[in-house]
């Protein structure tokens, strides 16, 4: 009999009021039922928001260092339970254990980093233009925050949002992705054990079209933080714009790795393999385009094909496996559609391009590592986000052309260039249109103490992680103390 999980509202685990549930299955084996989760309705969302609204009155008055101490305990608990969480996450979403351990580690790192900020959370002091007057700015909490997170990093991304929101004095309702609800349950069990008071954190499970939409539209939500597709992000932005809610969007990517003729090809090879096929290509930072200088294109392409053909596919719980399944059937169908599009556009398929159903893996959502050659920048497979293990090789004649190609999409999240030329490296840092640029490294994400986010259709300009995240989850308040004992008028002509 399947395990039955619940929502977490006002410090208690409760069923959806309708009693409806949805299934959570292992993408490596669709017959493995992980559990049943509540299909939350607007009524459940409202209950969670009312709990968060009530708790905000108390939580906002807890000193930030004390809030940080609670988050430090969360980090300690995550560290103690890292392996258990990682194994559960691999079963739930498919990526290999090395990656799910890293996913949990990001949560640990974020907890400790944010906990330290509890004794900083700096404002500013500045001289006043008038005598006997003091001027400063401080951060204040916003209120109830709605966090809507994806399935590909089910621990890292919720903690990126949740911990800074809590440190700033906000309360939270999280809607995790319906493909990875179990990891969220584990996180909230830890939050409760660490001493987060009832109502401060709440989780409601369900589909985006019903649960997520109800959360975004609710009048008591003061801020929405969303990570997902650009299409859904635009819909959320429209709703929040009408209600004048603060919104932070981290959306898609069409990331590219440039390899110049002077690059270390073995290093570039490892970067391309990890960037393109890590997490089965299901990262917003995944390397989807490989931009190769003509002088090394054939050599590196041959090296890449030879190595990619040997990637071991299977259940990520097997330590020898290098690539797990796609998240679900719809994702696999989407990837295969793009492969057909690439073929119809005239790209040359070098390897892959087909569903992987060999031996005991016939019941999972596996797809072969796929590489296209002779791709032009105007092709759909070079412009649109695929979110799967599909890499497009584009040949260029010069550094200048490489920069033009890498910037030639509507996205701008992560970017990479491999070169030994320091002048080229610095020009790339200046000229590439992206929120993240790596020199001699793959298009992976950010470390937790640096800003994470992108430009153009990748988001709306906010940056999570680092110190910039506190500008999302707090309000600035300017404070003036006039101790002159008389009326002093600022912002008028005081010059005699």
Describe this structure in words.
The strands form six sheets. This protein has a seven-stranded mixed sheet, with helices on both faces. Helices cover 37% and strands 22% of the residues. It has 14 helices and 21 strands. Strand 18, helix 13 and strand 19 form a beta-alpha-beta unit. It folds into two domains: 7-251 and 459-479, Aldehyde Dehydrogenase, Chain A, domain 1; 255-439, 3-Layer(aba) Sandwich (Aldehyde Dehydrogenase, Chain A, domain 2). The model has no long low-confidence stretch (mean pLDDT 96). The longest helix has 21 residues, at 97-117. The chain has helices spanning 42-59, 64-80, 82-93, 97-117, 156-167, 181-194, 208-217, 230-243, 265-277, 294-308, 329-345, 399-406, 422-431, 469-472, and strands at residues 7-9, 12-14, 21-26, 29-38, 124-127, 133-141, 144-148, 171-175, 201-203, 223-227, 246-250, 255-259, 287-293, 348-351, 370-373, 390-396, 411-412, 414-418, 436-439, 455-456, 474-482. The chain is an alpha/beta fold and 496 residues long.
- Number of DSSP strand runs: 21
Kindly state the percentage of residues in helix: 25-40%
Assign the CATH architecture of the largest domain: 3-Layer(aba) Sandwich
Envelope shape: globular
- Class by SSE composition: alpha/beta
């Amino acid at each position: 009999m399947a395990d039955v999980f619940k929502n977490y509202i006002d410090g208690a685990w409760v069923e959806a009021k309708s009693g409806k549930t949805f299934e959570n299955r292992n993408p490596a084996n669709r017959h493995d039922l992980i559990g049943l989760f509540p299909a939350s309705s607007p009524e459940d969302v409202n209950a969670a928001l009312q709990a968060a609204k009530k708790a905000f009155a108390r939580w906002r008055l807890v000193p930030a260092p004390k809030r940080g101490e609670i988050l430090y305990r969360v980090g300690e608990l995550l560290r103690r339970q890292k392996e258990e969480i990682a194994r559960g996450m691999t079963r739930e979403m498919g990526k290999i254990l090395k990656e799910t351990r890293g996913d949990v580690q990001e949560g640990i790192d974020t907890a400790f980093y944010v906990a330290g900020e509890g004794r900083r959370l700096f404002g500013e002091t500045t001289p006043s233009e008038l005598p006997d007057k003091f001027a400063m700015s401080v951060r204040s909490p916003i209120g109830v925050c709605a966090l809507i997170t994806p399935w590909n990093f089910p621990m890292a991304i919720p903690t990126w949002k949740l911990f800074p929101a809590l440190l700033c004095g906000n309360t939270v309702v999280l809607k995790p992705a319906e493909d990875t609800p179990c990891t969220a349950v584990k996180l909230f069990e830890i939050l409760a054990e660490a001493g987060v008071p009832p109502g401060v954190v709440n989780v409601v499970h369900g589909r985006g079209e019903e649960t997520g939409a109800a959360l975004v539209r609710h009048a008591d939500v003061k801020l929405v933080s969303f990570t997902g597709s650009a299409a859904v992000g635009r819909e959320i932005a429209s709703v929040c714009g009408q209600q004048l809610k603060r919104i932070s969007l981290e959306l898609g990517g069409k990331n590219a790795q440039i390899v110049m003729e002077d690059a270390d090809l073995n290093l570039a090879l490892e970067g391309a393999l990890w960037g393109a096929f890590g997490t089965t290509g299901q990262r917003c930072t995944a390397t989807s385009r490989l931009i190769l200088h003509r002088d090394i294109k054939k050599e590196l392409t041959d090296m890449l094909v030879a190595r990619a053909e040997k990637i071991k596919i299977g259940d990520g719980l097997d330590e020898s496996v290098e690539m797990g399944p796609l998240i679900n059937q719809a994702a696999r169908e989407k990837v295969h559609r793009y492969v057909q599009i690439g073929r119809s556009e005239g790209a040359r398929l070098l390897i892959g391009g087909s569903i992987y159903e060999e031996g005991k893996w016939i019941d999972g959502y596996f797809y072969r590592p796929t590489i296209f050659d002779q791709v032009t920048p105007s092709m759909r497979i070079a412009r649109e986000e695929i979110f799967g293990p599909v890499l497009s090789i584009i040949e260029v004649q010069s550094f200048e052309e490489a920069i033009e190609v890498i910037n030639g999409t509507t996205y701008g999240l992560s970017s990479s260039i491999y070169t030994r030329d320091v002048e080229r490296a610095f020009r790339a840092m200046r000229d590439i249109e992206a929120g993240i640029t790596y020199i001699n490294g793959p298009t992976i994400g950010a470390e937790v103490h640096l800003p994470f986010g992108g430009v153009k259709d990748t988001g709306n300009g906010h940056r999570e992680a680092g110190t910039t995240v506190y500008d999302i989850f707090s309000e600035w308040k300017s404070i003036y103390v006039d101790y002159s004992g008389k009326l002093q008028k600022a912002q008028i002509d005081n010059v005699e």
